[in-house]
Amino acid sequence: METFEDFLKRIIVVVFWLLLLLPFIIFPFIFIVVPALGIPLPTANQVLTALLDPLKALPLVNDLGLGPSSLFFKIAAFPGFTFAALVATGIILYERKLMAKVQVRVGPLYAGRFEGILQPIADLVKLLFKELLVPAKADKTFFFIAPSLSLALATALLAVIPLAPDIFIARSEVSLLIPFAIIGLTPLVILIAAWASSNKFAFIGGLRALHQLIAYEIPMMLSLVGVVILSGSLDLFGIVEAQRGLWFILPQLLGASIFYVTMLSELERIPFDLPEADTELVAGWLTEYSGMHFGLLQLATYVKFYALAVLFTLIFLGGWIGPAFLPPFAWLLIKLFFVITFMLLPRAFMPRVRMDQLIRLGWVWLIMLAFVNLFIALVQASIGVIL
Amino acid sequence: MRRVVHIMPDMVFIAVAVITIGAAILALESRELVYGAVALAVSFLGVAGIFILLDAVFLAMMQVLVYVGSIAVLIIFVVMLVRREKWVSIPAGKERIMGVIASVSLLAFVGFVVLGSGLTETFTSTATPPSFFEIGRQLVTEYGLTLQILGLVLALAVIGALTMAKVEGIRSK
Fold first, then answer.
1. Are the beta carbons of B65 and A174 separated by less than 8 Å?
2. DSSP character string of A138-156
3. Is the Cβ pair B68, A177 closer than 8 Å?
4. pLDDT 10s digits, B158-169
């Protein structure tokens, strides 16, 4: 048994060695690696002024190639990861409050004095301080890789999703395909996580997730073919611009409904949460994950939630298109809010479907309806509904 | 900064190539079957990366969707389901050494031919890469018949597989 003094001693030893070793890493980096790469370094005086005055910090950051217009900033901060993670935390809080209101409960109330607004931060702190438990028989490599891999995949979804005509990370001719190619990798990560846990519940959950995701991937992609036919483009920009006259949700109502159902299934949300059914499987493939591992997996789920909600907005609700008195980005956020609400609601009042119902719905009904929708889109395209 | 940008494509290519080939070797040589299957998926991803470097994004996405998203996942699924013992021993016999010698000599031969054929100079082109629009148009006009025959063959394969599975199920009863 370790006493508190031992604990302190251990920490002091670690700090001592860090202080001793860091100069050997930092000084070569500053004096050898940085000049070799040709990056201009600010002087100490500039750094200190920049700390006091953010406006003076801006040119310094721009010199380093990390300014607001640089690719790094786009990926790491604004349309990219940090923004998505912030929205994801917002979604978690909004979901809890919304579910509570629907079920006539109160929900988070105390953290932050006003309606539990600081609850996500409290949860994060709790997760950060919890112990990372690894099962004795677990496959350590895969067990540790899976959470970060899951978050990496969810973040990769954001790469080609534009938020406004001038807010995007990368453009591609086939930017509609790329997010779905990345979503297709999810079963791999879930299988790795489930298998590495070496737990029966986790493995059953993983197998259920595999069946579910593979069954719903096909109708998900088929339901979008109608939109591709009507807009004549695989580029998300082209699809949004094709909706100037009419949002695709009206001619493609069937496609939008199929996409909505498959989206819920892809996110393993409540009518389709069989992979983590908590009354049957503890927590499904997440069973053995604790502490920040669980936090990462949860964050990945909600970043994916955000990305899919944005995709729905762009594909069916005209994205950033709206009257000119608000900027395009604001229109996107307003539509996104409604889409997110609509995606959260089923969790509040729906029971879980059975496995055979789920598989039948995916393989029989949704695929058939997707083909019907394809036919409708062909008829509409030949009549010329959207021009 | 400019220098860094200039050497970037080569660096990316080398990294992708190392990942692809390394994962392929691991897929064959790994003593744990599950690791091998996952390495196979990584190798497929590396091939998709090479397609992206060649400006064929559409092909890369199809590679990810079909090979990684379906085939690799099914292989991993089967491996995980039928796994009996943790470590599979690979016999290091005479065949293995012969195989290594044969593949290395084949590689050396191909490399010799490529180096001798005058393809060593870098070839740069300013022409825009063919868009997937053009590919699609060609598929439904010029190669329409081929496309339909391909579809028929695939449908036949699916029906055949279903029938065989049904027959097996009836026999086992």
1. no
2. S-HHHHHHHHHHHHHHHHH
3. no
4. 899 888 877 766
